Amino acid sequence: MISLHDINKTYFGAQPLHVLKGINLEIADGEMVSIMGASGSGKSTLLNILGLLDNYDSGDYYLDGKLMKDLTENTAAEYRNKMIGFIFQSFNLIPYKTAIENVALPLYYQGVSRKKRNQLALEYLERFGLKEWADHYPNELSGGQKQRVSMARALVTQPKVILADEPTGALDSKTSAEVIQILREVNQTGITMVIVTHERGIAMRTDKIIHLKDGIIEEVETNNPDLIDLNTQIK
Amino acid sequence: MDFWREILISLRRNKLRTILTGFSISWGIFILIVLLAAGNGLINGVSYNFESRLQNVYTLYSLETSLPYKGHKASRYIYFNDKDIRTLENGFPHIDKVSPMAIYNETAIKDDKSKMVSLEGVRPIYSQIEDVRMVRGRFINEHDEACSEKVIVIDEDLAKSFYDNADNAMGQFLMISGIGFKIVGVWKDESNICYVPFSTLKKIHNVTQYYRLTFTTYGLDTKVDNEQFKEYLKRKMAQLHEFSPNDPQGIWISSTMLNAIETNRIMHTLELFIWIIGIAMLISGIVGVSNIMRITVKERTNEIGIRKALGAKSRSILASIVTESMVITTLFGYIGMMAGILLTEIANNILNSKMDDNAMTIFANFTVDVRIVVMATLLLVVCGVLAGFFPARKAVRVKPIEAMNYR
Fold it and tell me: Per-domain residue ranges for chain B?
């Protein structure tokens, strides 16, 4: 599903910062992978490149067999809309829109009719147990509920890949466990998933842990998440 | 349809932002209209008070000649006659309307009361030349003049002493030298000057020569123009009446030219001043609106980032922001415009109902040129939209990840 060949990325500021120094990575279809690393290791940059939110300087990035290189803004927007779902640490819900409107937003940009949009959005909210909260604004929801809304929003377009940037970073351990459990269930429906986290407990519940250090992949650790007791503390 | 729904939701859910932006626009337009209206009111008020000074009026007085000429001796009186009137009226350059004047001192009688009056035969234009202000009724009109009607405009003093007040005087017949004149108007004066149609007086007294001719002019805007005109007029008169064109006497020409030029200059300065203030107001309005738009877009940077991450194209975000600002500015611009016009109308009503004939007014008739108002509103709308457009374009160009992390 995801294939990276020698990806390099440098930020040109007052002092040029070589953030990614030749990343090679294969993520298979339906795999659930976590990326770990200290802050500054380049894990967020890598996720942004995977999510077509940022471009890279050299190398090749294939997503679902297509080369994602030198994309125009519009093409990138289209790919993001159709193939990728995002989950963010700070949820990134639009504050003046209700839960259902937030979930329906990606469909709006696909040109789906309003009726169909709302029907689908409600379906996904229901799936995450938020049907009764559909007409609430984000500031009326708890952290866990907000993250579930953003998961519903990420999934409503039925993307190929879910990219999650510290999805549990703003949540307590109990809610974190719920969220990772939901992510696993989503993954089991066949959606590839990449999670950036600095929490080992979260990473342990993925198939593969990629350790990033100073812009290179230091180690790829293979897990068997099914062996891990779901009740063990993750924080 | 969906697009407009999104815009509406965004405007409705961000009430404070919408109202603040809208208010600044409405307020700007409102103040501009009120200011322009007050300025125009001031100009109208001033021109009402100085109406007589606004026109360039010439008066010819007859005098004795001081030089012998073509067999005529000196010290000959030059009188104006009907031929002079026709000459001035028919195609004489720069002359608009002519009113000859004949004056007779007569005695007006009512029952046992009598009063000396100065009976002046004039044409309708005279009311503008001499700024005759009516208290009741009307001045001599063209019909009176054409048909030599026996009508009279009396002054307030005569009306009071003969009929107690101006209202009672209206429609009464005033006896002067055995002739009954119907009172059609009372004018604001106490000098016992009464006006009758020139043609009527001419018939009664069989007048053929006059001491005074008055006329209004056009197109004499500078001192030089006026001096040349005077020169030409004098030569023409000298030719008609056979006196030396070099005679300093014969006729005497006076004009209100300097007054008129001065008053016009004051008016133009006033107008310019109002324009400058208006434009300054408009600029401050534009700056205010632009600032709000700029801040609004900055505030929405996060939202822009989120929308981009979800697959929105830059163009679609830009379109919705620009449309939003267009909707706000147009709607509230219209509200401000209507409120401003409403206020000027109300002010006009109050002013008209309270306006006393005797009072000197500073303001009269608040008016705004609707075209100017619409132009100003459109300008503000366009500037508001542009002020939203440029920062929005900048914001949508930012990488979504940076936009999302913006605070």
Answer: 2-51+262-405, 57-257
